[in-house]
Design brief:
homodimer; mainly alpha; Arc Repressor Mutant, subunit A; Tetracycline Repressor, domain 2; 9 helices; 0% strand; DNA-binding
Chain lengths: 211, 211
DNA sequence: TCCTTAACGCGACAACTGTTGCTGTAGGAT
DNA sequence: ATCCTACAGCAACAGTTGTCGCGTTAAGGA
């Protein structure tokens, strides 16, 4: 719209992720802010998690938080990024059924655990681009890592070769998300087992082999 | 906390649902507001749907909207309640597989259709009690009505007696919700079919019969 | 017809969101 | 030691959310 380059210094949007001065003030700010987020989440829950509250609690200025994290979703994304183990792998229980149940138990835990980080992130993701992107990346990574349980099952002859790993994994896990997040039924841990078993059965019958 | 009853009139929370004076001003207000909600949703999308915008558009005062619907989620809940056909029934295609596919197509449509009422409601439900409750009730009703497809399948001998209808229906539909709402993959209509087929297969194998 | 009162209109308010232009400060390279 | 610059602090702003007390209107019964 305006042709003239701004005479004043552009406020420059800094990067939330890789800090360019890793040992310095920025890193301290990051620490204090993310700590404040988790503390608030634990003590007062998602509803109390406002940018202002985080700024107050951390002693970092409002503006700085907005510039580096953009909104509450961005803050949660930051916490998730930090909490995500780079070396996570699905358990190997020796059977597809067992592997899927183990995965589903983790999902169930993540969705019901305290602090409600995952739930809060999902809620935020509907309004916050940073949160949506963080979740997308997180799930993409997890589903990729989980594909190995399907490969193992194929190797064992439990399911036909050509089984679509992602489709099978989604079929196994989706009911847990659905019951807990959308239907909000007080689903117990048994659901994790039932859903995993059903998916394993369908997979064995060749339901996830593309024509 | 305070012992003395308030000297002034209590602002009284009116009921959004059953209007006590059905022919009068309240009913007109309701009409104008809900019409404004759908109009805004169609024309400008969910993000533009603010209480203020609805109030302006409808000519009803802000305060009145807040009092009767509480928040944006409440407004969406009102529209859903009105749009929900009291006589909805799942199609009867003659096979469990076909019935589930038909249901899943409707789910897919609801989640991708325009206006994005369902999607908006789900997004809102994470922050708005009225929206959450409206969805819960809506889904409870729909899953109840859909149970008949399972009963028919049992009668036809497609699945064992004792099959848990709700569990089967959740297994069939959850992947569609999961892909479209949470994973936000651009899932096509084929997903509806795949998910339904997998659930039907698992059901035939007895995956949804409680021990 | 009049009276009661549920429900709407109005203005003010506090809190949170998100942005902008500027100044201040400390890391890290030279 | 000194400069450069990325980043933090600051103050002010406009917009949205949600609430409150009070005055006003009109629906529906007596």
């Amino acid at each position: 719209m305006d042709e003239s380059p701004p005479a004043t210094r552009i406020p420059d949007p800094p990067s939330p992720g890789p800090v360019r001065r890793p040992g310095g003030r920025s890193a301290q700010v990051r620490r204090r802010v993310l700590d404040a987020v988790t503390a608030l989440l634990v003590e007062q829950g998602y509803d109390a998690l406002t940018v202002d509250a985080v700024a107050d609690r951390s002693g970092v200025h409002r503006t700085t938080v907005y510039r580096r994290w953009r909104d509450v979703g961005g803050l949660l994304a930051g916490v998730l990024a930090e909490a995500t183990g780079e070396d996570w792998r699905p358990r190997d229980t020796g059977s597809l059924d067992g592997d899927l149940v183990a995965i589903n138990r983790e999902v169930h835990e993540a969705l019901t655990g305290d602090p409600p980080l995952t739930g809060a992130l999902i809620a935020a993701s509907f309004r916050s681009p940073p949160a949506a992107e963080a979740l997308r990346a997180f799930w993409a990574d997890r589903y990729d890592r989980c594909a190995v349980v399907v490969h193992r099952a194929v190797a064992r002859g439990e399911v036909p070769a050509g089984t679509d790993a992602r489709a099978l994994l989604v079929a196994a896990t989706a009911p847990v998300y659905h019951e807990l997040l959308l239907l909000r039924s007080g689903a117990d841990a048994a659901l994790a087992q039932r859903a995993a078993r059903a998916a394993a059965l369908a997979a064995a019958a060749g339901a996830f082999v593309p024509v």
